[in-house]
Amino acid sequence: MSTFPVELPEFPDEVVTEALVRYIEPPGLGGRAALITLDNGYDHTKPTSMGPAGMRNLWDAFDEALASDAKFVAVTGKPFIFLAGADIKLMPLLETRQQGVDMARAGHALYRRLRDSSIPTFAFVNGTALGGGLELALHCHYRTVSAGAVALGLPEVSIGLIPGWGGSQLLPNLIGPEAAAQVVIGNPLNQNKMMRGPDLTKLGIADAQFEAADFLEESVAWATAVVNGEITVERAQIDHGESWQAVMAGVRRMVEEKVHNASPAAMRALDLLELARTASFDEGTAAENEALADCAASPEFKTSLYAFNLVRRLGRRPEGAPSAGLAKEIGKVGVVGAGLMAGQIALMFARRLEVPVVMTDLDAERAERGLAHVRAEIDKLEAKGRASKLKAAKLRSLVSASADKGVYADCDLVIEAVFEELKVKQAVFAEIEPIVSEECLLVTNTSGLSVTAMAAKLARPERLVGMHFFNPVAVMPLVEVIATASTDQETLATAYAVAKKLKKTAVGSADRPAFIVNRLLGRMLAEVTGAVDEGTPVEAADVALDELGLPMRPFALLELVGLQVAWHLCAHLNEDLGPRFPVSANLRRLAEADVPVFDPDAKGRGRLTEAGKALLEFGDKASTAEEVRHRVLAGLAEEVALMLDEGVVPGPRQIDLAMILGAGFPFWLGGLTPYLDRAGISAEVSGDSFGAMEM
Amino acid sequence: MRDTIRDVVFVDGVRTPFGKAGKLYEETRADDMIIRCIRTLLRRNPALPPERVDEVALAATTQIGDQGLTLGRSAALLAGLPRSVPGFSIDRMCAGAMTAVTAVSSAIASRQYDIAIAGGVESMSNHPMGEGVDPNPRIVAEKLVDTDALVMGNTAENLHDLFPAITKERADAYAAGTQHRYAAALDRLRADFATMAARSADEGWTVATDDQLPRPETTVEGLADLRTPFRPHGRVTAGTAAPLTDGATACLVADAETAAELGLPVAMTMVGFAFAGVDPETMGVGPIPSTEKALARAGLTIDDIGLFEINEAFAVQVLAFLDHFKIADDDPRVNPWGGAIAMGHPLASSGVRLMTQLAREFAEHPEVRYGITTMCVGLGQGGTVIWENPNFEGDKS
Fold first, then answer.
1. Is residue B52 part of a domain?
2. In this complex, do B205 and A41 lie within 8 Å of one another by their Cβ atoms?
């Protein structure tokens, strides 16, 4: 046995992956093959990952297998999991930059034995292969993938790292720079999109694909045929000439467009993919060592990891939720209103809760129209294959509509999705409270009105709770759950239980104006429109936040939510929270315009038309983009501090979670507050950091 | 009445390598084993459109857990057969797969099916004999069946009592012979193995390519001193009994014309079959009346049979059959490629293993016109299927 060439720190909490070597004698091979199984001793709910001890185990397995008389060496994983990559829990424990370099070197030293082996090497990718797991496979001479494999990819960039165990160099040389950029950068920046087995085959990452039922047997038979020369593996020729550079230039534009180069990991990954065109493998991996160490030491990685854990942990166990045991069973749902939002909510409840959902509207015609719209949506789901024929039929049978509110009599939960005005909502609840049963939950989907004010007129206010879904409700992962002083524990527990069944992440908010996400987005827009009103050109104000890499610039956000809604929100916040939310005259003019103010050709980028621009009036105090950025961030820091003082949420972590899931704020900002801390804004505004990451 | 009887042909059969219970396949699901067999069959016969399969009849003795859930249907779904293909489960203990074949063959002969998959599986690791059984108390109260009859080794000792001419020495000699015949035929047997992935949490994955149980080094002398676990100073030993085994088998059975239409090969043609009951306490003699019955119905005699595939639950039970039909212990027509004492006997799977083996032997013996597959069954039964060799080159008059 040889010694592992890189010294790594010990991690006492490492879940150690074993690399189990067995020899098999496939028919027709004329000898034996070595099969290495990666297994951490747990079932698939605890995926196999690599830490120092696991790497040494694999090193020893290579020592044995690669020195044997095996005709080929293959690596596979425990059921459903190939290898989920480096154990990211260990990364924050690296104390020095040199340790980061060593981690990268260790992976390279280990994996290159598969690449350098004179014995043919194979990866049988039976399931989840992420990051260092997929990189292991890339080092093998050949790869098969299970058609049933899910969670495949190189997600490093999404948490502020780069594929640093050879992936950035091997992948582009295997499948070309364009596809590689999609895997290394495009997918991680697209809500960390994962690939499935057939994607690997289509992209040319896998040489052969077999069904899950007898994946290993068929992979072994295929490998035998490859080794015997009965099968010749054909791969695409990769052009290392100018087209590579042209592709990379396009990718750079995409990254610029999407995140305004705010993700340092994406930028490093771009550099590495570019380097892979000309670099030798040694040069390329050396560059990976440095890039990985830099990224691992970067604040963006630390905030990303914080955000990643926030979504995984806090997202699953919302703070302030009563015991789930108190939750009531929901057997039928009522939706008040049959408009667009009501229809979306009705369909979501039907899909996730699989119980009857009944909508009502003022008259039969409106109710029927609402139902027709829902049915059309179900048809779309079926056409896209998102719902089977049977599931679609079930959804059609579950959703109904009526003009008679008597249909709510046997509902266990009635949610209103009517016009966003307190009097309208109060009238709805006054009308339905005598109809519904004593036990029925009343839910408002208000985006910011006072739930307490709605409860005030109820005979039984303890069963009213707010559940604020974000648009489009089927897609957005967040729901804000709002309890009033009188909401009882059963009602609140049921709201959280329903949120979970709806596959939403719930964040509790006190009943304060606009709750969490809309209050902060409102403040952001107020500062931007305020700057414009004062005289800052729209073009300057709109790009002021680019370096944060938010998913949308302010005017694109205005276009998405709708100017009327935005105006309504700002006016309402001004009323409730005062002059921190000034009423923008320009915003009002845009909202009230009777001509299109956004250019429809700009694909939702929030570009104003000439007519829109003509409506704007500017003061004489123009700010630079830098000044606007500072003003917005200071405003947000102030608002977060006030929200914490008011007890809107228990702490800054809930703010960050809500901003990540409700507003798409990126991981590298850690949501919001870690970035405000890092940029020194928190201290400047309130004298102290929020310190969410240290909690 | 219309004449509806059609010729039934055995197209192809496969099996997993057999594993020693508690070893190779201990952590492998039984349904996964038979699914692998079904998929291998379909892969080996690309001329068969899977939607043409009219039935999937699968046997297991203990139909619970991974051998339950109407295995014929659930395994068909999991094997990737079209959802339109039906399936059912079947049980006649050791003759499960044999009964699966005769059941679907009857339906094919009477024009109810064209093509069927039949097979069996037994994980004796995870479903040991007698798991979950609840014998009726009347069996004891009314002395209906001696409780000996529930322990197969005891029924084998009973056979030695009943037929004193069958000595332990003869049994040992027979057992050594079957081990040697198996070893000599191994390369030919492998042609029908479906390699099988098997995991051990401690050791990792392997892909089984060979039977685990055979002992080619067996000698009569070595067998002489083995323990007799079923009776002090008895005659039945681990060396003269089929070991506890895990494994699965499956085969493709078709109407002859449909096989011709699709271009499927014909390995054997069914002549007829019979099942018969005997005393449960001496279940090993079951193949004698079932064979007599089948021969009589087919208008054949034992002399017409050129190859015998008889399941070796115990050597004594094979010898009882041979003595009855006045066949020598070492007659080369009997289990020429070895039997269950060598390769193992995963209960409900073995019936199709016999057929797959006979089919291969037929191909090598064009001078042979008829062969039989036969086996004894717990609680006192025997089953026999007579097959005709399509490769027969002799005079058919």
1. yes
2. no
pLDDT score for A315: 81
The verdict on residue B284 lying in a domain is yes
User: How many structural domains does chain B have?
Assistant: 1
* Residue B1 clears pLDDT 60, i.e. is over it: no
pLDDT of residue B2: 57
pLDDT at position B3 over 70: no
Spatial separation of the C-alpha atoms in residues A533 and A521, rounded to whole Å: 18
Closest residue in chain A to residue B194, using alpha carbons only: A217
Q: Are strands B268-277 and B87-90 parallel, antiparallel or unpaired?
A: unpaired
Mean pLDDT, rounded, of chain B: 97
What's B121's domain CATH number? 3.40.47.10
User: In which residue ranges of chain A is pLDDT below 50?
Assistant: none
B191 touches A: beta carbon within 8 Å: no
Rounded CA separation A167/A186 (Å): 15
The alpha-carbon gap from A20 to the nearest alpha carbon of chain B, in Å, equals 5
Q: Give the domains, in start order, of chain A with CATH numbers.
A: 18-297 (3.90.226.10), 330-509 (3.40.50.720), 517-694 (1.10.1040.50)
Say which of A21, A39, A213 has its CB closest to residue B80. Answer: A213
pLDDT for A257: 87
pLDDT (mean) for B367-392: 98
Strands of A73-77's sheet in order across = A18-24, A33-39, A73-77, A121-125, A142-146, A208-210
- For the record, the structure tokens of B58 come out as 């699968």
**Is A39 in Cβ contact with B201 (below 8 Å)?**
yes
Q: Is residue B173 part of a domain?
A: no
Strand runs (DSSP E) across A460-607, as ranges?
464-469, 478-482, 505-509
pLDDT given for residue A94 in this prediction: 81
Alpha carbon of B33: minimum distance to chain A alpha carbons (Å): 10
Contact A79 B199 (CB under 8 A): yes
Whether residue B209 and residue A27 make contact (CB cut-off 8 A), yes or no, is: yes
- Rounded Cα distance, A44 and A298, in Å: 31
The percent helix, strand, coil of chain B (3-state, each to 5) is 40, 20, 40
B230 in a domain, yes or no? Answer: no
Percent of chain B surpassing pLDDT 90: 94
Contact A213 B206 (CB under 8 A): no
**Residues of chain B positioned with their CB less than 8 A from the CB of A22:** 203-206
Nearest by CB to residue B207, choosing from A18, A36, A217, is A217
Catalytic residue among A40, A447, A686, A689: A447
What pLDDT score does A313 carry? 87
- Four-point Cα dihedral A305, A307, A309, A313, nearest 10: 180
Domain containing B119 equals 8-125+243-387
